[in-house]
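Thread: Newbie trying to understand structure tokens

Hi all, I'm a second-year student working on a class project, and my supervisor (Dr. K.) asked me to get a predicted structure for one chain before our next meeting. I've only ever worked with sequences, so writing a 3D structure as a token string is new to me. If someone could post the tokens and maybe explain what I'm looking at, I'd be very grateful. Here's the chain:
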Amino acid sequence: MRSIGKYCAILLLAIFMCCGIAKVPAQAAGIQPYWDNAETVKTTLQISGSTAKSSLTVTGKSGTSKITGTLKLVDNTTGTNVGEWTISVNGASCSETNRSTVTAVLMFTLSFRGYVYDANGRWEYVSASVSK
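---
Reply by user tm_fold:
Sure, no problem. This is what the structure looks like when written as tokens:
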């Protein structure tokens, strides 16, 4: 009976340790994504008064032929889309800036989900997001 209690205590301790480790964000640990086609994928969000400025920068490596995807701004308080923009650029770089009218809320998330194509048409999924 005593050994069952010991095993339960060890199991609970292991579960609590795993829960604490699982909450460490990858960026906080200094881990950056590795892509074959993309050099950088970055979203920035600035909110000033009732205006949200959403920016996206995607830079492909040498030989990149096309960048496509969707840039989306979501109001996290209500769960509604504030803005959604389709991205389609022939070439190795994409720079997009959009402005949206927003109401006073606590948090927004700007996210990009897309594809970077190499010279042979092979694509690679890329993503980036920021919350503010």
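A couple of things are worth pointing out once you decode it. The longest strand covers residues 38-48. Confidence is low (pLDDT under 50) at residues 22-29. Feel free to ask follow-ups in this thread.
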